[in-house]
Amino acid sequence: MEVEEGCEAQLVPRDRRPDALGDLRVLPDETICAILVHLTPRDVARLSCVSSVMYILCNEEPLWMSLCLNNINGPLQYKGSWKQTALHQLQLPNEYEEPCRKPLHFDGFNSLFLYRRFYRCYTTLDGFSFENGNVERKKDLSLEEFHLVYDGQKPVLLSGLADTWSARHTWTTDQLLLNYGDTAFKISQRSSQKITMKFRDYISYVQIQHDEDPLYIFDDKFGEVAPGLLKDYSVPHLFQEDFFDVLDRDQRPPFRWLIIGPERSGASWHVDPALTSAWNTLLCGRKRWALYPPGRVPLGVIVHVNEEDGDVNVDTPSSLQWWLDFYPLLADKDKPIECTQLPGETIFVPSGWWHCVLNLETTVAVTQNFVNSRNFEFVCLDMSPGYRHKGVCRAGLLALDGGSFEDTKSCAEDCSSYSDLTRKEKRVRLCEPAEDSNYENAKNGASESYNLSNQEFSYDISFLAMFLDKERDHYNSLWSSGNCIGQRELRGWLWKLWVSKPGQRDLIWKGACLALNAGKWSECVGEICSFHELPFPSDGERLPVGTGSNPVYLVADHVIKLYVEGGLEASLHALGTELEFYSLLCKVNSPLKNHIPDVLASGILSLENGSYSIVPWDGKGVPDVIANCNLIPENCKEVDFPFGVWSKQQFEYRKAGMSIHESDNPGGSSRIWPFIITKRCKGKIFAELRDTLSWEDLLNLASFLGEQLRNLHILPLPSSNDSRFSDIKQKIGLPCGNGFMEAVTDKPCIPVEWEFFIKTLTRKKKDVCSRLTKWGDPIPNTLIEKVDEYIPDDFGKLLNTIEGEDGPHKVCKPCSWIHSDIMDDNIHMETCCVNSCSIGNTPDAGLMDNSYVNGYNGTGGGKSWRPGHILDFSDLSISDPICDVIPIHLDVFRGDPRLLKRFLESYRLPLVRRIPYLESVESGSKFGRLSYLAMCYCILHEENILGAIFSLWKELRVAKSWEEVEETVWGELNDYTGFC
């Protein structure tokens, strides 16, 4: 017996894991595999040689899939295995590939984690389908019944909606391969890289792959790359109301997707973007769906809410892993609503519903998201600044315990507690009065009439709106990067709805109050109108107009603008600088003043103890309401405009070193708002006319802008030689991270105006890579990696500084007033007769009085349009004139070099000073190229200028260098020398 036991012991292989992993043996296999994903393919290959267990871990196909997808560059071609595909990407010689075809085998190692993953890679899903789901099935559903029973309330599975589509017969993999084999589609996968595959390569992959989470086509641009597919289907009659339809195709967020995936692929748990609703029609194969109502976080899912900007991220297992590992743990009462979708069926997913999809076989489907009357307010709510409401909309009252719900994941190990966890009452944590003196404010910030601690979660707009941060300035607060459109686009969308859907203005107003806090701004405008004895806004004038960052209202013959962008101190500098600028125009009698709206009044509105008060302010002196906020600039008594341009330059320089929290609403109350009233222009803004203007009109516009920018850039600068600047470096120098003053330039005696400019650029360079990475597509990753070597270390070189005969350095670049924001919605056009439409001729005959957009509607046959006014000078600064060319060329001219050339011909000012008796910058240097300066300013801009560039010039998305982008976009500048 003892002998037999000894022999049996000799047959059991020794566990090789402790010796093979050394100190790493304390880590579970799952953790080690998660670490390996962050290595390079070459490092993984080296690590595989360390020991037998490392060899096993480093040769896992899921690992090589991640390595391959994270390092992809160009269209993907699958080479039979992910390791072979990765080696092919590295372009290794053939002799290095041979050893990889002879895997080694080791005994004495077992891993439940690797076994489960291996099982998921090779399992089949024949038994996952079932006939009796609990999603209601309907045929021939009427629009009335849909709105009454299902829209915004619960999912439904519909048949018959796609019976007449040609896609029912043509959207099979064989037919699509025949028609679109060489078309590259987007691939959805958990990767930071944008992945595309030609359809024939994708089908080859589908036929041989054994991945636990296979690649699947999820392409929102399929209509652009394969327009014929759009003719094969139509939006079902139940879903045709879509408020995003008022936007042009290039303005609206992604809304339709072609979805093709093999068995085991699918979409993991998520809530659709912006709380939109969706319909999904299956044309081929079978899908299994699972759904939970809003606020019910599925088991195994972790929700993270960024408390800075409200962005919501979800950590979730793959759909296959969830069904295999988590679904069996659920009690019957905790199981999701689910069904198997068959070819020809359409499923409707309401706003806010969690859903997960698993493809049981190769499937082809089309889906669209939409905003209609039922979910419009939810979409507006979700786009509103703040974080509490975003989390509550998705995770219910669990969100009020924090932004991360780690405890849901731990339930996979103890399913008995799941029911209690997801259903237990989560209360709002309100401080008791004894603990927090601001108790009443905190409670009233949620609701004045509700005691939230007695409420259960309800997916009701009135309930959810209580979690908005009412104190946030909705024009000024940090915007969530996860929002489907930006703040500018949101404001434009709501205004277009207001104009195009007058019958639904009550609903649009409710949405605008959620997204823009429109009620608050309307109340402010009412107070201003009352004080200045202006007519009150009519019903059609209740909503702010345009897309700018400050609320602007059109009231009869007047334009009222409230300054809120950047917080109170920034707003005071914006208005103070604008008023100083207007004063200068009149003082020097510049012709530019004829093309700027007349200023009728200006002042400061404040709210204190529930009462509004207004103090007129012309920019001179410091009103008491501002002095009480401790916002008095240094030595303000020595200048006429204490919040003028030089004070603004100092403020912007200080702000460049602030964190997000510091700069979100820096310096002062959110209950004080500077404002200005100007005369309303007649005509329309250029943005509304762009597509209707003749080429001659556009050329006239380019000449007009060149002439007016010339008038702007030759204006004298206000004196900066007062005592405020004598010790500028000591007073406002910002320390680097190590506590020492940052080195800005090695050129002494740089003028003060350039000191601000150069130091601000230096600040912006420090996080340029992370900022571009955050912006992401369409900025190419290959260029982001090269950006630091393209931008200079010494920004003083951008000034073309040269040493003069007397020793001090001179700057060969002009410094001037710049507008900074001449875009398509800041140019006003007027009608004129065709024969008399020329720059400088401004007859008023034929102008109509109909209110329209940013002015008065002017229409009529036989008429043309000519530029009349430039609007919005709140972004004025002192800087390089080239900075004004950037928005004009990219936004107004849309990159057309012919218009840029006409602009420069009219501009006629040198963009670099020529000093005959001095040597210029070194011959052939990049610093001598105007195109290089413009490109650097684009890269360092606080707005996503690069996104606009790569959207206009799509061919540059495959550019190999920044020099290639520079030449394409700004090459025309290098031929310009000026005429002075």
UniProtKB/TrEMBL annotation:
GO molecular function: metal ion binding; oxidoreductase activity
Cofactor: Fe(2+)
Localization annotation: Nucleus
Domain spans labelled F-box: 21-67
Keyword flag Nucleus: yes
Alphabetical UniProt keywords: Iron, Metal-binding, Nucleus, Oxidoreductase
Keyword Metal-binding tagged: yes
SMART domains for the chain: JmjC
Secretion signal, residue range per the UniProt entry: none
Pfam families with a match to the protein in the record: Cupin_8 (PF13621), F-box-like (PF12937)
Domain JmjC residue range list: 224-387
One Gene Ontology term, aspect cellular component: cytoplasm
Family of this protein: Belongs to the JARID1 histone demethylase family.
Full protein name: JmjC domain-containing protein
Native source organism of the sequence: Nyssa sinensis
